[in-house]
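Q: Ferredoxin reductase, please. Structure only.
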Amino acid sequence: MTAPAGTGTGAAAVARPNGPQWRPATLTGDRRENPATRTLILDVPGWPGHLPGQHVDVRLTAEDGYQAVRSYSMSAPADGRRVELTVQRVPDGEVSPYLVDDLPAGAQIEVLGPVGGWFVWRPAEPAPSLLLAGGVGIAPIMAMVRAWRREPAGPLRLLYSLRSPDRLCYGTELAGLPGPDAGVLLAYTRRTPGGQDRPPGRLTPADLARHGMPAEQAPRCYVCGPTGFVEAVSATLTALGHDPSRIRTERFGPTGG
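A: Structure for Ferredoxin reductase:
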């Protein structure tokens, strides 16, 4: 995607009957989470708010009129007109390399949302929360963590599976999360940082039994990541006795980047 028209001004909002509408979104700030991942901080006039776990469609329009649309989860809870998206660069992708490496401050894109009503975390539903993320699946999970920090609703445990330390997102924030009501496991699958006792490898039933929550606590379980990760973790939770009706999943798959 080269020189999208969305980097200028004047992207018009187009209404969908009885649903979300396209809105102009201006990049007002950003954070580099790791070399391949960037959080975009957007100002969206008229934004109606959202729930942790929801996502938006992002639309870029090139000068010749060609458009590309991709979906990205919001990585922070509602905060007025502010919307945060964490985007990971997909090799040979069409949209993500532009968003991660080239979208300049002050640029304007379009967003449609909020979208989704199943994979959402509501602080008004007090219960223990067991959150499991694979790779960039941490983005919507992080929105839940941040909402929980604003308004704790029972104990929280986070198990975050990632390849290596250079893929870690929100590292400083997660390091400050553990406490009497919260716990975090960083499960590296390929390479671990120095000082970590757990050898590299995928999340195991032993990991979930030790660092998760017992089924007797009836936690709300949220699993997000690649399809293989989601299916394996969901099956393990069920085998450990968790009620399938309390396991909510979100799968990330190839979309052309």
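A: Brief note, in case it's useful. The chain has a mean pLDDT of 90.
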